[in-house]
Amino acid sequence: TYTVVPRTPVQFIFSGNREFSAEELLSPLDLENRPVPFTEGAVQSLFAGIRRMYQSKGYFYADVEATRDE
Fold first, then answer.
1. Distance separating alpha carbons of residues 46 and 51, to the nearest angstrom
2. Tens digit of pLDDT for each residue in 30-54?
3. How far is the C-alpha of 18 from the C-alpha of 29, rounded, in Å?
4. What is the C-alpha separation between 46 and 24, in angstroms, rounded?
5. How many whole angstroms separate alpha carbon 12 and alpha carbon 55?
6. How confident is the model at residue 70 (pLDDT cuts 50, 70, 90)?
7. Contact 14, 25 (CB under 8 A)
8. Number of alpha carbons in the 13 Å side-chain half-sphere of residue 48
9. What distance in Å separates the CA atoms of residue 12 and residue 18, rounded to the nearest whole number?
10. What is the distance between the terminal CA atoms of the chain, rounded to a whole angstrom?
11. What angle do CA 62, 19, 49 make, to 5 degrees?
12. How many whole angstroms separate alpha carbon 23 and alpha carbon 26?
């Protein structure tokens, strides 16, 4: 017997980005191998990874922020 627990779908939309593809920006989450649903910690980890990516290209003041649609 399997129990299916439906969860709210998650969608990431990037705007203002000209340096990286959406796939590159999502790479810190390792979506292909992700065994658990997204948590607030996972989203914060994604933000930190994106900031590091921009900093590695010299964009030391890049800002990463999110809005949540309910």
1. 9
2. 777 776 667 778 778 888 888 899 9
3. 20
4. 11
5. 21
6. low
7. yes
8. 7
9. 16
10. 32
11. 55
12. 5
Residue 25 near residue 50 (C-beta atoms within 8 A): yes
DSSP output for 17-64: --SS-HHHHHGGG-GGG--S---HHHHHHHHHHHHHHHHHTT-TT---
Condensed to tens digits (0 to 9), the pLDDT of residues 4-21 reads: 777 677 777 888 888 899
Say if residue 47 is exposed, middle or buried (CB neighbours under 10 Å; 0-12, 13-18, 19+).
middle
Residue 7 is which amino acid? R
